[in-house]
Amino acid sequence: MTSTGGPDHADAALEVRVLGEFAVLRAGKDIGLPPSRKTRALLAYLAVVGRPQRREHLCGMFWDTPDDPRGALRWSLSKIRQVVNSEGREALVTDRNMVALRSQSIALDLRRITAMPDPASLAVSDLEHAVRLFKGGFLDDLSLPRCPEFEAWRTSHINDVDLIKARILRTLVERLAGEPSRALPYAHLLKAMQPGHAALAAAVGALAERAREQAVSAPQPLDRRDASPSPPADSTDRPAPIDIRFCTTADGVRIAYSVMGDGPPIVQAANWMSHLQLDWESPIRRPWIEALAAQNRLVRYDERGSGLSDWHADDLSFAAMVADLESVVDAASLDRFTLLGMSQGCAISIAYAVKHPERVSQLVLYGGYAQGWRARGDPDEVARRTAMGTLLRQGWGQDNPAVRQLFTALAIPEATHEQQDWYNELQRKTVSPENASRLYGVFADIDVSALLGRVTTPTLVLHARGDQSVPHACGRAIAEEIAEARLITLESNNHIPLAHEPAFARVLDEVRRFIAADQPRSPSAPASDLDAERRNVTVLAIEIVSPLHAFASVDPELVLRQVDPLFESTFRIIERNGGIVSASRDTGITAVFGTLPASEQHALAACRAALLVKSAIEAQSGGSVRVRAGLDSGEVVLRTRRVGGSARVEVTGVAVRTATRLAHALRRGALAATDRTRVAAAGAIDMTPMSRADFPRFDRDEEAYELVPEKGE
Q1: Residue 417 burial (CB count, 10 A)
Q2: What is the Cα–Cα distance from 708 to 454, expressed in whole angstroms?
Q3: For the residues 360-368, what does the mean pLDDT come to?
């Protein structure tokens, strides 16, 4: 096997991560990976085995089919070269018979843990550093059920990695026996690996109790602004083992908040149904509170109208909820902190972070949404949620928990009977039927989507893949619109993380590492690093619809071999018409016109490009592929981010989201423009009004117009 890349040498700039979601980084920056799952799995396999592999072996492992497996292998290797080779350095070397990824050309996270000495011989700091390498299980996101040989290899490594991780965690817990707060997160991780181990569960419970006693043994702050309000009639008078305080908002509402633990501050924005005292007794909330407070100063508060906060509040608006967060932060005397939002608390956190970027060091958003269910405008969802709202008003306060069980089943479908019973009762004790109904309506209309592009705080977004309360797509939409936000998808069906599931440990691990990184972006970054300006543009969101997409999960290479040439044609047309590609996905492209250089004819250019793309792709595919696209015009924020000697353009704004939503909403292959784009085109492009039946899930107040091809196009 020959190579023109010279002798093997360490290339510290190239890093491959196989512990957790598969990733490849260069100089610390994520490299975009091919959409094909088999191609990514092949790259991971070559990186881990670290020695030459015969082509026949690779074909049998990944493409044991009669349809040209060697051709599929060549296609995947061409994609891998684009990822790992750079600047004349060839990490991937091949010949007619063999394929290899140089083991010395990459830094592999797995290699760092397998080369470690016995954990008993390592210092505690080294063990803690080793734990941070485990961002998840071995190749969590690269299961290939139809490739049994690869799956057997992956399963073997999963078992080996779990054994190493368990040994490290057990050693850490034993070595930190005298520091229960420090040991507790590692004990929870160990328990998550062995959920049925009764003795281990008991030991973790005892450790948590010791950590709690240690946390509350310090002298309590003396500043309590108000006496505690009278709790609901069925609440216990027994004081919670946490410091509960009260502050008064500008409109006279008393808000209950708690402070627990010591360390860098985390403020958790209020969310649906919390009760500071009962949460501590809950098998659902207490593990979460304990884990966060073990190494941080955790500040939580009850929403107005619920919990220990005033139930008699005239104003339950979203603006009032943001103001409550401001009041709690001021009362707790916090200058700068990590802001944590869960569920609708994510929208509150987003609004606060945009309003006070100087105070929020990091933003963590779990299971949230930028638009409430009514604002999202899905007719089916609106009908279903409206019906649930009717039941809520009629049955919330009844002793029979049947109505509350509907909400419990959505929030924690995989909970134990004990956990579900607790949650049913917590709902009844936390909020009155009247306030529950009012809050339910407020949450439905939340819409902070226009603020996402203005978030400058480093952001971590976590969302369960099977979340039945808030669809995973809501979390993905947040991550896509906040610049440089990172999305972590959790393998769970629960809206609230439960201590017995692996996703719980994953959340804690990701949040702790994100907070520990402590690399905040300055709201006023130097112009050499980040140039930003506002500009009127037209956004074109294109979706390529192929019948082969139905087979993507079976043979993604088949799809990509057809779609890739169509993408290349689309890129060329966009560039020739003065547009730039701001994002590309498996089957879609987003382009912006009027940016580089600025142009008053951006709407005309975008419309012409859309017509040319549709014509070219449908002709190139012989009519087997259809194009649908959405266009919107308006002001966006244009950022040119410079990293080293390269520059990358980022575009955020309402027009980007609107064009994308319009393209998604179309029920047929059509080019649809909003009224804003129609006006901006100034009659230069023929357009006809579209029927609402053509885009039923788009904003109800918006009209759409179909672009009509010019004669001869």
Answers
A1: 7
A2: 35
A3: 95
User: Are the CB atoms for 47 and 16 separated by under 8 Å?
Assistant: yes
Mean residue pLDDT of the chain comes to 82
What is the C-alpha to C-alpha distance for residues 550 and 280, in angstroms, rounded to an integer?
A: 48
pTM of structure: 0.47
Averaged over 35-39, what is the pLDDT?
Answer: 85
For 186, the enclosing helix (H) or strand (E) is: helix 180-193
Distance separating alpha carbons of residues 501 and 491, to the nearest angstrom: 9
Model confidence at 133: pLDDT above 70: yes
Q: pLDDT tens for residues 270-324? A: 988 889 988 888 888 888 898 898 888 999 999 999 999 999 889 999 999 999 9
* Helices marked H in 335-372: 345-355
Q: Which of 65-79, 259-273, 500-514, 689-703 has the highest average model confidence (pLDDT)?
A: 259-273
Q: DSSP alpha helices (H): ranges in 299-401?
A: 318-331, 345-355, 373-376, 379-395
Question: What CA dihedral angle connects 669, 670, 671 and 674, to 10 degrees?
Answer: -120
For residues 35 and 556, the answer to whether their CB atoms sit within 8 Å is: yes
Q: What tokens were used for 38?
A: 């088999």
Torsion of CA 507, 511, 514, 520, to 10 degrees: 140
Strand partners, 544: 627
Beta bridge partners of 390: none
E-state strands within 367-515: 459-464, 486-490
pLDDT of residue 390: 87
Q: Mind listing the domains of the chain with CATH numbers? A: 1-175 (1.10.10.10), 176-217 (no CATH), 222-370+447-517 (3.40.50.1820), 372-445 (no CATH), 530-707 (3.30.70.1230)
Beta strands 588-593 and 579-584 are antiparallel
Q: Which residue has the higher pLDDT, 444 or 506?
A: 444
Pairing of strands 626-643, 671-674: parallel
**Cβ density class 183-221: b for 16+ within 10 Å, e for less:** bbbbbbbbbbbeeeeeebbeebeebbebbbeebeeeeee
| AA letter at 524 | S
Rounded CA separation 105/360 (Å): 39
Binned at pLDDT 50, 70 and 90, residue 612 comes out as: very high
- Residue 245 β-bridge partners: 257
- pLDDT recorded at residue 362: 94
Cβ-based burial of 87 (10 A; exposed 0-12, middle 13-18, buried ≥19): exposed
| Residue 65: pLDDT over 90 | no
Closest to 302 measured CA to CA, from 349, 346, 354, 345: 345
